[in-house]
Amino acid sequence: MGKVCLMIVAVFGSWFLVSGSPAWSAATRTVNPPSDLKINTEIEAVFDRDDHIDLRDVHVKTDRGITTLSGTVLTDYEKAYAEQLVGDVRDRLGRERGVVNEITVIIPADADLALAKDIRSDLLQNPAVHVSKLKVSVQNGSVHLQGFVPSQDQKKRVDKIVKGGRQVASVQDDLVILARK
């Protein structure tokens, strides 16, 4: 009786390992890498949903598994941030970090654009400030802010950073307070 039970366990165990074991299935399963279109679509969706910076002027193209970023941004921080987002998507999809970053950081041609770039960079890199969908425009030294903040306190911090140590004629603050749930 003992030999019969041992034989049944051995046969069943062998059958389980070959046909139904998760370990065997994972080892023998072939995983198809995501298509270039899938990678592009996922990256563009993340760019659209991102509420930290505006990536509308950044273009994504994936060819043979390599993702190339092109277009323009105002700061080195935005360039690095876009590449980080792409790397995160590729990691999630199980692809190595095959990213070519050809994004151009615009060098301001006039004082207003330089001031806007400076303000935007300071706000995005400040860990005490939480602004989403930030837009900074400057005309004749007058700063116009648009975007969303979580509180009145954050709005005051933004204004203080914008005015701090700069030649700013005026600030039009159109930041909207969105209470978090």
Main β-sheet description: 4 strands, mixed
Radius of gyration: 26 Å
Architecture of the largest domain, CATH level 2?
Answer: 2-Layer Sandwich
> Which residue ranges are poorly predicted, with pLDDT under 50 across at least 5 consecutive positions?
none
* Total count of helical runs of at least 4 residues: 6
Helices and strands, in order, run as: HHHEEHEEHEEHE
CATH topology of the largest domain: Histidine-containing Protein, Chain: A
Shape: elongated
Strand proportion, as a percent range, falls in 15-25%
Name of the CATH class of the largest domain:
Alpha Beta
Taken together, the total number of domains comes to 3
What does this structure look like?
The protein has 181 residues and is of the alpha/beta class. It is built from 6 helices and 7 strands. The chain has 3 domains: 30 residues; 70 residues, Histidine-containing Protein, Chain: A (2-Layer Sandwich); 67 residues, Histidine-containing Protein, Chain: A (2-Layer Sandwich). Strands 1, 2, 3 and 4 form a 4-stranded mixed beta sheet that branches. A 3-stranded mixed beta sheet has the order 5-6-7, covered by helices on one side. Strand 1 and strand 2 form a beta hairpin. Helix 1 packs parallel to helix 2 and helix 3 crosses helix 4. It is elongated, with a radius of gyration of 26 Å. It starts with a helix and ends with a strand. The mean pLDDT is 82.
